[in-house]
Write a structure and sequence with these properties.
Elements lengths: L7 E5 L3 H9 L4 E5 L14 H13 L3 E6 L5 H15 L8 E4 L2 H10 L5 E3 L8 H10 L3 E3 L6 H10 L5 E8 L11 H6 L18 E2 L7 E2 L15 E3 L4 H6 L4 E4 L6 H20 L1 H6 L1 H8 L7 E2 L23 E11 L25 E5 L9 E5 L5 E11 L14 E6 L8 E5 L13
Parallel strand pairs: 1-2, 1-11, 2-3, 3-4, 4-5, 5-6, 6-7, 7-11, 10-12
Antiparallel strand pairs: 7-10, 8-9, 13-14, 13-18, 14-17, 15-16, 15-18, 16-17
Length: 447
């Protein structure tokens, strides 16, 4: 067993809902973006008010929050960056725990505006050797995020050449970019939206063919597939089976990619890595015994096919997907439980009498309040996904509006409802539905 400290589990959040999900399901730290200066401009991102609420929620539960400001800045960005870092600084006592920066100009501004801020250097800065790490360390950076093009052996060498208190952060799960450290011009070229300033349109996932110059209009598949080919479409990174090797390499923070992912994705990935890390540090034998569960749970996340990226050597042709850009998607997110109630119900009248259904029967049992994200109906089999690792198969026994009106289904997006299930749900639980390959309802499995 390696004697290094237990690594941090760092999880992305696109919104306040997802941040809370990450915290509840086991993140040690969460990284988020504000409304400017981050590389996920199409994500929902956080207003200053939402950021303050999210940071407070996380800090109350002992979880750190890092804010991304990792664009490659142009001249017109600099004045705004100064104001932005000042606003983040002035959020005390609930300021963020670190800034994630890639541009040296923004680094200098952050140091001037907020000297005591902890700064992490983004993977976007092409951090591929220990001299680069030492360069940033001397300037005052606490942590450097390794380039995704590094092997575990290279990271181990970096660890041996940098101060013990300097931290290495590395991606362990999520989408892989086909460009070096994410520095891509395809989006800018095709759509005018700059990937290095937060507006990537992901043209690497589009379908391509080749046109020979003397045969205009004749599209030839690059690969032997009549539908064309997705030549830039890399498999997703997944290192859930290699926690021991990641720890042995000296990585301090295990980073999950996905600041545009749903609460369901974040919950599933966070919960799985949380258990895997904890099991390994309890005993390697317990981790080995849990591998089948980790694999099963991680495969329930929306994903492309998995690979280990560059960690065990340069990717081969097997690391690309040539016939489709479609995600594997086995589960549909239905909502998160925000409140539970027993009698008296929230809508009871002044006499304390419960709402009576059309059948003349008063509502029994416990109800759970949630905001609907996808439609489901009375009588359906769905699943309660719990932070402790359990997946509980349940039946939808009743649905009610906030006013107590019984309904057969919840067709309206983001409608707030009360649900009665065959097993009680708790605050923070997620509701999801398993889908079959043809898109029809599947049967959830209790674990």
């Amino acid at each position: 067993m390696d004697d290094r400290k237990k690594p941090e589990l760092l999880v992305p959040a696109a919104s306040l809902e997802v941040l809370k999900t990450a915290v509840i399901f086991g993140a040690d730290a969460v990284y988020i973006g504000g409304e400017a200066f981050g590389l996920r401009a199409k994500a929902k991102n956080f207003t200053m008010k939402e950021m303050a609420e999210g940071i407070s929620f996380a800090h109350t539960r002992g979880v750190k929050v890092y804010v991304t400001a990792n664009i490659l800045a142009h001249n017109e960005d600099l004045e705004g960056a100064e104001r932005y870092f000042g606003e983040l600084r002035d959020m005390r006592p609930d300021s963020c725990d670190a800034l994630i920066i890639s541009d040296p100009g923004l680094f200098a501004i952050a140091k001037e505006v907020w000297p005591e801020a902890e700064i992490h250097i983004s993977t976007q800065a092409n951090n591929t050797n220990y001299q680069t790490y030492l360069f940033w360390w001397r300037l005052g950076a606490k942590r450097v995020v390794s380039a995704r093009e590094l092997s575990l052996e290279e990271i181990h060498v970096i660890r041996e050449h940098i101060p013990e208190e300097m931290e290495i952060e590395s991606f362990v799960q999520g989408s892989m970019c086909i460009s070096y450290s994410g520095r891509c011009l395809l989006s800018n070229y095709f759509t005018g939206r700059d990937a290095n300033r937060g507006s990537c349109t992901h043209p690497c996932r589009w379908k391509y063919a080749v046109v020979e110059e003397t045969r205009p209009g004749e599209y030839l598949p690059v690969y032997e597939n009549e539908r064309g080919t997705y030549i830039f479409n890399s498999k997703d990174l997944c290192m859930i089976e290699h926690i021991p090797e990641l720890v042995a390499a000296g990585i301090d923070s295990f980073k999950i990619e996905g600041r545009m992912k749903t609460a369901l994705y974040v919950a599933a990935v966070t919960r799985t890595y949380r258990r895997a890390i904890d099991d390994y540090f309890e005993s390697p034998e317990k981790y080995a015994a849990g591998l089948e569960w980790y694999r099963e749970e991680i495969s329930k996340c929306t994903h492309r096919h998995f690979s280990t990226g560059f960690y065990f050597g340069k990717p081969t042709e097997e690391s690309q997907i040539y016939d489709s850009s479609t995600y594997v998607n086995e589960y549909t997110y239905l909502g998160m439980i925000e409140e539970t109630a027993e009698e008296p119900w929230p809508w009871q009248n002044e006499e304390g009498r419960g709402m009576v259904t059309e059948s003349g029967r008063e509502i029994p049992g416990m109800l759970a309040r949630f905001e609907q994200r996808n439609k489901f109906t009375l009588g359906e089999s769905i699943e309660i996904m719990k932070p402790d690792g359990r997946n509980v198969a349940v039946t939808v026994e009743a649905l009610y509006t906030e006013e107590g009106e019984a309904v057969e289904s919840c067709p309206h997006a983001r409608q707030v409802l009360w649900v009665r299930l065959s097993e009680n749900a708790e605050c923070g639980d997620l509701l999801r539905r398993r889908e079959t390959k043809d898109g029809s309802e599947g049967q959830p499995v209790s674990v």
